[in-house]
């Protein structure tokens, strides 16, 4: 199904989030539709991670509404919200893995939290998820300190997929990776999204990622979504920040490749 026609799975309306006098999100509204990969871009410190963390309930909002998979935290019961939380997975920007747990134990962790499975079954599921993200069984008993940056991100992705989520939240999944590892990770995200039918909310400042995987982009500026649409619409957007971001010097090469796929 064309994601543009799909139901809204994350609906944010007039969201206000702040810390003390500092208003980070200022009446922000945004929809995410089932089956799409939405890329969220914006200046560093602009509130992308705050938006993600508020949507999943880790940060409080001042006002506005957030409805995820039909549930509004303001009105849903604790049990209902917990049932909804099982239906998403998260890859955080910082400290992706628990350093005292092995790779396998990291992936088992959400199952321990939310499911009543035997240890044997947890391990089987964890190994299957690790296989999906391209981690060898040999690496399952390693600790995070023994992993490369790319492997760490893959394990974190496997953990985000542990509960067979419908929505995956990714916060700067390719930051800190070399371009080749980042490209491989983009391909992995796209493949998993298509095979598992995921909805993906991806914060990124990686233009290559945006072009390679996102169906739609939302630009967060001054606490609001000031532009949203497919890449082509963003390239045509006249807003100064969007123009600078997509048509800046760093962007030129990627944009050229997008507009001239044969060259
Ligand atoms: N827990 C917090 N307490 C106070 N300020 C915070 C907190 N989390 C984020 N901020 C501030 O909110 C702003 C947006 O941060 P963030 O969402 O992390 O930006 P980014 O778009 O780079 O992800 C920043 O000014 C940051 O310092
Ligand atoms: Mg951030």
UniProtKB/TrEMBL annotation:
Q: Which part of the chain is the ABC transporter domain?
A: 10-247
- Signal peptide region: none
UniProt GO molecular function: ATP binding; ATP hydrolysis activity
This protein's UniProt keywords:
ATP-binding, Nucleotide-binding, Transport
- Give the SUPFAM superfamilies listed for this entry: P-loop containing nucleoside triphosphate hydrolases (SSF52540)
Q: Does the keyword Membrane apply?
A: no
Annotated Gene3D superfamilies: P-loop containing nucleotide triphosphate hydrolases
Instruction: Report the transmembrane regions from the record.
Output: none
Q: Which InterPro entries match?
A: AAA+_ATPase, ABC_transporter-like_ATP-bd, P-loop_NTPase
Where on the tree of life does the source sit, at the highest rank?
Bacteria
> In its UniProt entry, what is this protein called?
ABC transporter related
What species is this protein from? Methylocella tundrae
Source lineage: Bacteria, Pseudomonadati, Pseudomonadota, Alphaproteobacteria, Hyphomicrobiales
